[in-house]
Amino acid sequence: MCAPLPHDPNRRPSSSGSVVLREPRADVLVGSRCAACDNVAFPQATGCQRCGARSMTTLPLSTSGRVWGHTVQRFAPKSPPYVVPESGFVPFAVGYVELPEGVKIEAVLDCATFEELAGAEVTLVATSPVPRFATATADAGAAPGATA
């Protein structure tokens, strides 16, 4: 079972226990595009990683993409900076999401089950403190550690 990290303001509990899809968010990830070779970078860069040109423009990135690769964090990361929630540690997924612009974003991944993540379509649900994407089946009403 994938579980949300604690204190996730983007999750709404479901009164029926069913899946609750998130409303679109106003915030977006901001990258940059090279005017010389069209390469896209995230986070925003002052110089191109591909050709070295210094002619970068600001680029708001797409809010949906496909999971390119992932892993499951099955033990609590070092603290600090990680703070173990009062309810205890719950495994969570992290991985890379490939956006239509061709850039891959490292992010926390919310899901109903870890098995559904390979190649899954995901949508941006938070940009801070780190990018966070979710599958359409991520159950916003699930309690950390609950099973599907």
Concise description?
The protein is an all-beta fold and 148 residues long. It is 0% helix and 31% strand. Strands 4-5-6-8-7 form a 5-stranded mixed barrel. A 3-stranded antiparallel sheet has the order 2-1-3, with no helix packed on it.
How do the strands and helices of this protein lay out in sequence?
Layout: E1 30-34, E2 40-41, E3 56-60, E4 64-73, E5 92-98, E6 104-110, E7 121-126, E8 132-135
Parallel strand pairs: 6-8
Antiparallel strand pairs: 1-2, 1-3, 4-5, 4-7, 5-6, 7-8
Organism: Nocardioides plantarum
Domain ChsH2 rubredoxin-like zinc ribbon: 28-56
Protein name: Zn-ribbon domain-containing OB-fold protein
If you had to describe this structure to a student in words, what would you say it looks like?
With about 150 residues, the chain is mostly beta strands. It folds into two domains: about 25-60; about 60-140, Beta Barrel (OB fold (Dihydrolipoamide Acetyltransferase, E2P)), CATH 2.40.50. It contains no helices and eight strands. The strands form two sheets. A five-stranded mixed beta barrel has the order 4-5-6-8-7.
Order of H and E elements: EEEEEEEE
Oligomer: single chain
CATH topology title of the largest domain = OB fold (Dihydrolipoamide Acetyltransferase, E2P)
Please summarize the sheet with the most strands: 5 strands, mixed, barrel
Q: Which strand order does the major sheet show?
A: 4-5-6-8-7
Calculate the terminal CA-CA distance, rounded to whole Å: 6 Å
Q: What is the overall silhouette?
A: globular
What is the CATH C level class of the largest domain, in words?
Mainly Beta
Radius of gyration using CA atoms only: 17 Å
Task: Give the amount of beta strand, in percent.
Answer: 25-35%
Low-confidence parts lasting 5 or more residues at pLDDT below 50? 3-25, 141-148
Counting DSSP H or I runs of 4 or more residues, the number of helices is 0
CATH architecture tag of the largest domain: Beta Barrel
Structural class: mainly beta
Helical content, roughly?
under 10%
In total, the number of strands is: 8
Question: What is the number of domains?
Answer: 2
Mean pLDDT reading: 82
